Fold:
Amino acid sequence: MGIKSKLLVCATLECETKEEMLSSMEKAKEEGVDLVELCIDSISFSQISELQHLFHHRPLPAIVSFRLNSPKTSCKGDMKKTCLEVLRLAIELDVEFVEIELEVASNVIITEFMNKRSNSKIIVSSYVNGGTPSKEKLGNLIACLQSTGADVIKVVVDVAYITDVEPIFHILTHCQVPLIARAAGDRGLISQLLGPKFGACLVWGSLGSKSTPGLPPVASIKQVYKLENVNPHTKVFGVISNPVGHSKGPLLHNPAFRHTGYNGIYVPLLVDNIKEFFRVYSCNDFAGFSVGIPHKELAVGCCDEVHPLAKSIGAVNTIVRKPTNGKLVGYNTDCEACITAIEDALREKRVANGEASNASPIAGKLLVLVGAGGAGRAIAFGAKSRGARVVIFNRNFERAKALAQAVSGEAFPYECLDKFCPENGMILANASAIGMQPNTDQTPISKEALGSYELVFDAVYTPRDTRLLLEAAEVGAIVVSGVEMFIRQALGQFKLFTSGLGSNHPLLST
Structure:
């Protein structure tokens, strides 16, 4: 079995018993995994021979590894001796891949393994902790791994920031031997999702409901991202946010790319410093971005050009890189997405009551806005453009006052929201993160206060039915989910990403 025959999906199995390891391999096979890493250091056994049954009855091709510095081996006896005995047994039983750490891989050991094997491939690995190495140091490490004569080399680097992943892409592109490279931790997710673009022949995923930081679920590798289709010409898009795990963008954009025949991939980007992100990922292959919490306002300053609407709002939720000169252009698709979602819901009610008008149903209404961040600014400016009166509540009162001044509205302290009731038939728009997973029990306003509102909109879309919307429906208000805004703004983004493709895509036009 050659490691370069196709893109392989691998899952790491850490189990306490041999029986659990066999069961986990069967589950991995069911999920479509091509290869499993059997972490033998995690298993309890007294005799090496006990592993024969496990190796003989593996239902999938396997990598046998034994980490000397894992938590389960650090307190045991002569682990180096045990490690070598395990790996020798794996070679003797023709396990497909045998992984030996660089610290253990002396010339004598490698020569012995090479001479004894019949079909096994030898992987020499290095796990880098305590700070991300520079490209130069990483290059030196790769050279050292290559000098062992291994069939495959492997590097796993703990990363603190998403920008630390870039050197891994660099070595993937330039390495002359089969290389497995992975960035560990939440910020390292793109090392797997984008690895195939830069030459990776193997990607790691997590099984079932077991989440591992930095590893995409195997199901999403197969169904959402379809990484087997990613190649060096694939354009990279993604959502820049923190947190980012809640984003449904990949579920919309990736199928839309495939439907329109566009060679692109859309990935979550957990970004701490947006300016540094754009400094590091500056090539044209990183072609477009959605911008989420908390970067929408800072993103304006990262753009070389800003669309007039986005400039007036002071927030950008979409950035496209010009292929001709690499310049970043910022847009705001939140504004129209939110306002049209609210307008359509109100018009539907008006039509049902036999009332028809060409004017915006928001005109003259009092719109009460919770939140003065990027999404809040888009809603405030959109509401003003339709003739609504805007009142803003925000935990940071100074931000609320600044936004109110920009849209000729009013601002009040957030603590006063429950008692604010100058009239009936108002519109409430929540543009804060209150109620977003995992804090689904939270709501920005009491149920008792919702009776004064004709319509309640919540920009939060995970979950779809937030506590705010459920309670608003119970008191008889029209409710508009953040999913409505999300889909509409995503359609606007997709058109910008692809120069107009996807207008009639079923996933983006409902």
Summary: The mean pLDDT is 94. The longest strand covers residues 121-128. The chain is about 35% helix and 20% strand.
